[in-house]
Amino acid sequence: MKQSQQAQIDELRSLIREHDYNYFVLNDPKISDYEYDQLFKKLLQLECENPEFVTNDSPTQRVGSDLVKDFNSVTHKTPMLSLTNTYSENELLDFDRRVREGLPANDNIEYVCELKIDGVSVSLHYENGKLKTAVTRGDGTTGEEVTANVRTIRSIPLKIDLKEKNRINLDQIEVRGEIYMENEAFRKWNEVREFSGEKTFANPRNTSAGTIKLQDPKLVAKRPLQIFIYYLYSYSSELSSQKENLELLKDLGFRVNVNYRFCKSIQEVIAFCRVWENRRSELPYEIDGVVIKVNSLKHQRILGSIAKSPRWATAFKYKAKQAKTRLNKITWQVGRTGALTPVAELEPVLLAGSTISRATLHNYDEVQRKDIREGDVVVIEKGGDVIPKVVSVELSARDQNSKKVSPPSVCPECSSKLYRQEEEAAIYCENKECPAQVKASIIHFASRTAMDIEGLGESLVNLFVDLGYLYTYADVYSLKEKTDELIKIDRLGKKSVSNLIEAIEKSKQKPFDKVLFALGIRYVGSGAAKKLADHFLSLDALVDSTEVKIEEIHEIGPSISKSVKRFFCDKHNIKLIEKLKAAGINFALEPKKLKSVSLAGKTFVLTGTLASMSREEAKAKVQEHGGLVTSSVSKNTDYVVVGESPGSKFEKAQKLGVKILTEEELIKMI
User: Fold this and answer.
1) Tens digits of per-residue pLDDT, 320-346?
2) Domain of 326: which CATH number?
3) What pTM, to 2 d.p., does this model score?
4) Does residue 378 contact residue 344 with C-beta atoms inside 8 Å?
5) Nearest to 220 by CA among 231, 212, 209, 228
6) Residues 405 and 278 grouped into a single domain
7) Residue 162 contacts residue 253 (beta carbons within 8 Å)
8) 505 and 518 share a domain?
9) Same domain? 116 vs 250
10) How far apart are CA 178 and CA 665, in angstroms?
11) N or C: which end of the chain has fewer CB within 10 A?
12) Is residue 273 within 8 Å of 290, Cβ to Cβ?
């Protein structure tokens, strides 16, 4: 009897999965909603009667009942890199040239073009055909687990058919995709909320991002989330091309955007980009461009990546949508470095799905160059479809009595003196205790990509600074001593304060590279911070280093090295670091476990294209055996490893008499 019920349950699950695929992936339902509901109810009844047969991948188990209190941090096995952007056909030709220069001369180079969906990236891990975890992109290195919420998206299979297993091992795979909302579904959902007296949302993209972080999966299930899958990686088998991967993903039941194109030349890529720039309005969802990828995965490995972006892919961004409105007033905003940014206060206008009332004017030189004045009718657009900016002025609509804008004579926040560095457009406030600088630096310190202190957002930081609880970001770790006072503040309370203190304590576990980025050193973004941390391993070693040593790190130039040294020569910054150390913040990386010390004390430089691995992979292998890889050749360099088409480093090595290694010779050493 039990065996018969088990077989019936399995058959119903298989049938429901098939209908889910037809409806949510192919948009081609084969049965009516009523018939589907009857199948689902029958399965639910059988599982209630036979709870021992309930499995995690059953269609009835998509929506969990447990609230998600914390989203655990997960390190991506393969970083989810961001893409470089191109904005013209000439830049696409430059991309193609760089790709060709980085690959063997006679290799045939092909591309795959995919529409760039304006959504939220997510990584899905499957083991033995079953969805195990779902992780947000986060900062590209570390994301947050959102499995319970992602399971509610009906176009994501909880179980995949490994029918392709005889061709390739798919027991452990990672797929990536873009979660989004279609425009019409978003509009209807907003209408329902408005009718119910609930808050409506500005645009599909931001709503999707917020939805995926809700604590209640049942609420997530009610929102019209969709997904397109664009990436496949097998941890057991070597795959060959992006084109074949997209086809394999479709065979496995994933929802792949059909509007991709296999291109045999960059001219075909350009033609594809032109077509969709004209047709983007026909789509039921938002796109902001086209993603171009080198098709061969072998070529992708050879090309490798820079700090934050792959060399084998780029995004061709379409011209941003524009709108006209009136500029009522120009105000000045003080950032964490003390730089003053002019901001246009606008008559609110709808642009690309959201209402815009403020836009950046970048700096005073830009205001002068465009002759932007208060009262002007201006054209605005979203830079990169994200940050609103003023593009131009409608001179024909200008008031004849309008006056040119002058820069402020003192800081608008603290009335301190202003200064301007040579060869820089920015104007700075000289007071490091300026409340606006303090607020901005703490907001950056607590942000998701830095110390990730959940709950310590802009409004709370502003409040704590205004009330005198915070004077620097180091004071964040003293807030626990003021718990009784914080509880009495309106909008907080015991539970909120407890959660905040817990998040602050949790941030002490952040790795050194995150801490280094959080300090807010000028020009040191998250990618540069990671390179500096990986190279020096501790803050003390970085502080004691020289500009020359810092610049030996690949892709770290003079502007970063000078800024780093300037930062650590400032007594105010050193005091902050001492307070952070006393609070228990991590200013060192655990030394990586070496496979051997056979290359200890040896310095390598890599140049040219390597055949069996990328230069990043070669660097990692040298480091695993105790060696050091630098970006410049000097008399202290022990070896220069030369691949195909080496550059000036090869010539310099020959002049200095540095030993030259082939790729084969390097492999023998490691």
Assistant:
1) 778 999 999 999 999 988 999 999 999
2) 2.40.50.140
3) 0.63
4) yes
5) 212
6) no
7) no
8) no
9) yes
10) 43
11) N
12) yes
